[in-house]
Each structure stands twice: as C-alpha cells, then as structure tokens.
Design goal:
about 200 residues, 6 helices, alpha+beta
Length: about 200
C-alpha cells in the first residue's frame, strides 16, 4: 500500500541505493537478533555485515559514498542493538497477510521487530527500520501499524517506533482509542484514493 500510494505499482528492477541499505541492514539484524545469545551481538553484527551486506556499490553515487554510508549505518545499527540488550524478539522480520474488516480487504504487512515494551509501560512495542523520513510515509506507517496490529493481535501496540538508518532519528507513537479510529478513517481514504481511476487521486 505504501508503494502504491507513492505511485509505484511494482518494485523497481534497479533498486535505489537507499533500498539496498534498508535490505542489507534488515538482513544483518535478522542474523544478529535471531542468533540467541545477546552477549556476543557486537561480534555477530561484524560477521553479519561481512556475509550479508550488499556489494552493489554501483547503485551508489560513488564507491566512497557506498563505503561511508555502510560505515555510518553499521554504527547506528550497533547503537540500536546495544539499546536492545537483553531483549528477545516476539516477532522478527515476519510478513503477515490478514483480513482487515475495517477496510474490507486482505492486507500484507511486514513487522521488522515486535518485543515486550522495553520502556516498562507493558504491552508490545513495534519497531521498524526506515530510510524514508517523509511525513507522509511516517504517518502511513504509524496508522497502518495501529490498525493492522489490533486486527492481528486484538490489542493496539503500547508503542510504535521508527528508526532511521541514515540519520539516527527515532520517531515514536503511543496509540490510543481515538487515534485508532482516526487511523481507520485515514486508511479508508487511502484505499479510496488507490481505487480511483488514474489522474483523479492527488
């Protein structure tokens, strides 16, 4: 839905460098966070980057851009992993296909990380790694996650977090009942836009 809202009907054959960064980071974190032992995660990350980081430097502006981007992103990943010390994921990079009665449609969504809310507020926290920090993408993510998670688990997440791999910015939402209802309304509008003939929706 996020790609369709941006007018991308199918994934691009030549992935932009930001998409390569996101996929590489997700692959590395999947290896590290799914590895069991939390004590050796720094070493696990180092090995995961060697094994899993894309070598498609030609998609970047220059080879130097590729190397500098990888270095800075791996540094942020290391900080993120340290912040999650001791946390055991409930869901780790898992894709769900679920019927949303509020939208009367089946929707696919991938959750990067779901874990017990580490802030001590109770409930579950949903984390997502991002490279797109546009307000539209962030709002769509937060609202879709609120509605989808409640449909899937019967309750809203206590916290939703988006972590930018490129800047280190962290965005956070704490859903509540009125926010859920507003999110349903928002997604119904998005659905109507996607269903509208080309050239009508703006």
């Amino acid at each position: 839905m996020e790609r369709m809202l941006r007018g991308e009907r199918r994934p691009a054959a030549n992935k932009p460098w930001k998409q390569i960064v996101l996929e590489s980071a997700c692959a590395c974190l999947f290896d590290v966070l799914g590895g069991g032992s939390t004590a050796a995660r720094a070493k696990q990350l180092e090995m995961a980057v060697i094994r899993r980081w894309s070598r498609r430097y030609e998609r970047f502006h220059t080879p130097e851009h590729f190397l500098l981007t990888r270095e800075s992103v791996v540094g942020r990943m290391s900080d993120y992993i340290e912040r999650l010390a001791g946390a055991v994921p409930i869901v780790l990079f898992e894709t769900f296909v679920h019927y949303l009665p509020e939208l009367d449609m089946e929707v696919k969504q991938t959750f990067h990380l779901v874990l017990q809310d580490e802030t001590g507020q109770g409930g579950m926290a949903v984390h997502k790694l991002i490279v797109d920090e546009s307000p539209e993408a962030l709002e769509l993510y937060a609202r879709m996650t609120t509605v989808y998670f409640r449909a899937l688990y019967g309750a809203m997440p206590s916290r939703i977090e988006a972590v930018s791999l490129l800047t280190g910015n962290v965005y956070e939402w704490r859903p509540y009942e009125a926010y859920w209802q507003a999110s349903v309304d928002y997604l119904q509008v998005v659905k109507s836009m996607l269903a509208a003939p080309a050239g009508i929706a703006h």
